[in-house]
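Batch 3, record 17
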Amino acid sequence: MADRITELRERYDYYKSLNLSLNMARGKPGADQLALSDGIIDPALIEGFRSEDGTEIRNYGVLDGITECKRLYSEILQVKPENIIVFGNASLTVMYDYIAQCMIFGSGDKPWSQQGKIKFLCPVPGYDRHFSILEHFGIEMINIPTDSEGPDMDLVDEYIKDPSVKGLICVPMYANPTGITFSERVIERFASIKPAANDFRVIWDNAYCVHHLSDDCDKFYNIFEYAEKYGTQDHFIEVASTSKITYPGAGIAVMAASDKNIESVKKRMTVQTIGYDKINQLRHAAFLKNRDGVTAHMKKHAALIKPKFDAVIKALSDSFSDDGDFSWTEPKGGYFISLNVPEGCAKRTVELCKEAGVTLTGAGATFPYKNDPFDSNIRIAPTFPSLDELKLATEILCVCAEIAKLEKNN
Amino acid sequence: MADRITELRERYDYYKSLNLSLNMARGKPGADQLALSDGIIDPALIEGFRSEDGTEIRNYGVLDGITECKRLYSEILQVKPENIIVFGNASLTVMYDYIAQCMIFGSGDKPWSQQGKIKFLCPVPGYDRHFSILEHFGIEMINIPTDSEGPDMDLVDEYIKDPSVKGLICVPMYANPTGITFSERVIERFASIKPAANDFRVIWDNAYCVHHLSDDCDKFYNIFEYAEKYGTQDHFIEVASTSKITYPGAGIAVMAASDKNIESVKKRMTVQTIGYDKINQLRHAAFLKNRDGVTAHMKKHAALIKPKFDAVIKALSDSFSDDGDFSWTEPKGGYFISLNVPEGCAKRTVELCKEAGVTLTGAGATFPYKNDPFDSNIRIAPTFPSLDELKLATEILCVCAEIAKLEKNN
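Prediction for the assembled complex:
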C-alpha cells in the first residue's frame, strides 16, 4: 500500500505541475450544445409579431403564456394547456415564487409563515439550489434517503403524519445528482400520498424530463395522471424549463398544476406582472414546434454529451470496478453522475482535485445545509468541459479519490 | 339647460348608433410605436453571443445584468453601474418582489409581516397596479393629495411620524395619471425625509423618466444625488423599464438603489435565479446604445404620440375651457392625461362612455381601494387608438361628461 500511495502521489504531483483549470462543477451545456439552438434567433420565426391566435406579442398582455407555448408544454408534460403557465427565464424563480406565495398567503390553509416551525422532506443526494430556497425561507429540511427507484416512501409516509411537514422537493426524472428516475411503484406511492397537512406541496422539478442520453431511456410518468386516481393532484406543483433544451441564459420556464393551484398562482401573478416575454415564447414555440420537435432536438444534445457520460463512467470503472468502497450511478439522461467515495473521503477528494486545478461541486452541496452525513457524495457534471478535458479531469478525480481513501486508512 | 341636455342626448344617441369600440383605458403604445423598435430583433446585434466583457450570453450566469445594460441605465438614471440591477420583462415584478422581500425578511428591521398593521402613503391620483400590490399584501393605504408640484409633503412628514407607516409609492416624473413631475422643492423634501420607521421605503417608479413629448420637457431629478446630502439614500428604491421605450411585451426592467439595498436584493436574487435573459439584455444595449441613443429613440415616439395628447387637450379645451367645474392636466411627457369632472360625476361619465363603445380606465381606479372620495378623476390614455379614433373617443367623452354633470344638477 505504501507503494501504491507513492505511485499515486507521483501522478498527482505531475497533474499539479500542468497548472490545469478544469471545471466539472455546474450542469452547464457546452458551447457545441448552445450552437444547436442558434436557429432560434432567426427573425423569420417571429415574423408579423403575432401568436397563432392573433395576439400582438410586442405589446402588453397574456398573463399565462401564448397559446402555442402552452400547447408545446402540454404535449411534453401530458397535461391540458389550461393547466400550464409559461413564465420567464428560470424555473428556479417559479419555485422560489411559489414557496414565497405559500409563506405569505399559504396553500389552502394559514400562511406557512404563521404556522410556526415548518419542514420539508428532501430526498438526498439532491439539488443544492432547491435546498438554498428552503434554507432562505427558514424551512427545516429533513433528509430522505433514495435508492435506484427513488426516495424511501415508507419514511416519507411516516414523516407526513406530522402536520408541520409542508412539502417535499425532488427531481423525479434523471435526478440531480444521481440521474435516477422514480420507478412506477414510487410514482404510485407519491400519487397515493396522505399528508396530515392539507396544504402539503410536492415541488416536482421535472428539469430533465426530455433529456435522454439515448433511445435506451427511462420512462416518463405523468404524476397528474396517477394523482387523479387518488384525488391528490392539488399536492403537486410541477416545473420545467428549456434551460437545457435551448439556452440556459434566455429560455422559458413553465409550471403545471391542478386547476385549483393554477388559479391561486394566477391570482398572485395578476398583481406581480402584466405578462412574461412573449417574443421569446414565440421563438421557442416556433423553433421547437411540438413534442416530436423537442425529441429530435434532444437527440442532437445526446449525440454531443453521451460520449462525455461514457468517458466518465469508463474512467470510474477502470479505476474502481474492483473496489467495493466506491460506487457511482450510470444515468440514462440528465446532467449528472453521482459518485460515492468511501465515508469521510468526499471533502478531501474535492480538496485534492481543487489543488490540482479540477473544480468539482463542493462536497456536501448535494445535501441540505451542505452537510453530507457520510462525507461521501460527489456530484460530477460532465457536459461543460471538452471530451479531452473531461477525460483528464476524471483521471485526476480518480487519483484524488484513491489518495483520500488510502490517507484515511493510514 | 333642458335644451342643452336634449341636444347632448341626441348627439349621444347618434354615437351609440355607430356601434363603436374605442379604448382609452390602458397606457399601451400604438402599433406605429412598436414598429420603431423592430430593429432590435436583428441577429447582427447579438452576433457572437458575447457581452462586451466576453461573457457567453446564451449560457448560465450574470446575476445582476450584463455590463453594457447596467451602464445604459446608469447613464439614464445617473447612478453608478454597481447601483443598478437588470431584471426581466416587468418593473411591476421588481416592485412586487421587493415588497414581498420586505414582508418576509424586512428592510433592515423585523419582517414587515411581523410588525402588525403597516401602512403606505399613496399620492393620489396614482397608478392602479401600485395599489393592487399594496392591497394584495394587506398593507393599509393612505391617500396623499398631489398638486402640480407633487405630493403634499407637509402631510407626508406628519404621517411618517407613525412608525407603522413603512413606505410611499409614487411615479416622480410624468406621473400616472396626472403627468406632473415632482418639482425640485418636492424632491428636496423627499431627500430630507425623516421617517420614524428606519425600515421606511419610497418606491420611486421612474417608468417615464425619458418619455418626453417634446423638447419643452420637465427636468429629471436624480433622487439619489439629493438623498446623499441627507444620508437618506437607503430609503429609496427606484425602478424603471424599457416597456414604453422598446416593447412592453419583451423588455427589460431595472432597479437603482443604495449599496446596502442592492446587497440585500442580490442576496435574495442568488436564491431566486441564476440570471435573467441576457440575450434580451444585449439586444437592448446594442439597439439603444447609450443615453443619447435613448433620447433620439424617444423623439421618434414623441413625434407619434404628441399629436394624440394635443388632440385630447384641444377637445377638452373646446368643450370645457369656460367651465370651471372641469379641469385637466397638460403633461409634457408620459402616457396619461388626468381629467377631473365635477364631483360625483366620474363613475357616471365612464358608464355613459362604455354604453357608447368607449372604454376608459374604471372610475376610481386611480385611487387606493378603487375609491375616489370625490368620484371625480378620470384617467385618459391617448396612445393606443389611432388619431382619428382618439378624436372621436374624446368627443364622446366630453359629451358624456357634460351629460353626467347636467344629470347631477337636475
